[in-house]
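User: Just a sanity check before I run the rest of the batch. Below are the structure tokens for the first item. I only need the designed sequence back.
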């Protein structure tokens, strides 16, 4: 009898570890979870659930873990810089200690990643860049349409947005989804006065910056000129920082994924 092929679909596991809620996405047809793992940090505001990028990663055999940052959605606490740091710290501990247990269950999922990538999209780039060092065993780092720094002075990192105004609007319009802590703690980041670290916070094999050519939120000339050096201040990279501007795409992930194959965008994340 011919074995029936199971059509591709994404299966979601809701997880809880410590004070953090998270979603794990995997191909429903795959049994083993011993495969590459991508940790995805979305932008703000965003919705929990698979994105165009995470769905393509799953289609290519990658397990995707999407933590709810502390103080957002179903995670406890307040949305703050310390909360973001603690989210990645707890996530790393859960992965390394077998603590990824589906909500309501008692047995952890068999997630023993062959390699680990971190992806920061839009505002998720702020979190990924500043606190990636909390993740143990990280191999590669990707930024998609990523905010990296709110500086409006020299050097200009290309972000054409008033960070404080955008954040205040977010807190006012989504008070239950984003339970923002003390704004003074966010101010250095949102006003672009947070200093660069005196030495890299950690090391990875590769870093790639990906932007759509029509992204209205960024000055891509400034991104090309200054963003790689900014990333290198935070990250010790074995193979350097690469940057790709995708023709025919804007800020949003469906446009980027539709315009460029995943094998070309982030081969380091794939099996």
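Assistant: Here's the designed sequence for the first item:
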């Amino acid at each position: 009898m011919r074995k029936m092929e199971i059509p591709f679909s994404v299966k979601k596991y809701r997880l809880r570890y410590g004070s953090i809620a998270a979603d794990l996405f995997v191909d429903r047809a795959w049994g083993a979870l011993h495969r590459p793992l991508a940790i995805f940090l979305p932008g703000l505001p965003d919705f929990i659930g698979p994105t165009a990028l995470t769905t393509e990663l799953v289609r290519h055999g990658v397990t995707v873990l999407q933590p709810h940052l502390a103080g957002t959605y179903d995670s406890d606490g307040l949305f703050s810089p310390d909360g973001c740091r603690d989210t990645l710290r707890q996530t790393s501990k859960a992965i390394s200690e077998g603590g990824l247990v589906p909500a309501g269950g008692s047995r952890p999922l068999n997630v023993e990643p062959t390699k680990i990538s971190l992806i920061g999209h839009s505002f998720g780039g702020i979190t990924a860049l500043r606190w990636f060092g909390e993740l143990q065993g990280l191999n590669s780092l990707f930024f998609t349409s990523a905010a990296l720094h709110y500086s409006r002075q020299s050097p200009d990192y290309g972000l054409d947005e008033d960070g404080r105004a955008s954040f205040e609007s977010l807190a006012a319009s989504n008070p239950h989804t984003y339970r923002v802590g003390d704004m003074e703690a966010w101010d250095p980041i949102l006003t672009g006065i947070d200093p660069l670290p005196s030495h890299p916070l950690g090391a990875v094999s590769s870093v790639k910056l990906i932007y759509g050519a029509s992204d209205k939120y960024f000055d891509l000339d400034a991104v090309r000129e200054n963003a790689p050096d900014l990333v290198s201040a935070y990250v010790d990279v074995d193979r350097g920082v690469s940057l790709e501007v995708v023709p025919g795409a804007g800020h949003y992930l469906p446009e980027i994924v539709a315009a460029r194959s995943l094998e070309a965008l982030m081969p380091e994340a794939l099996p």
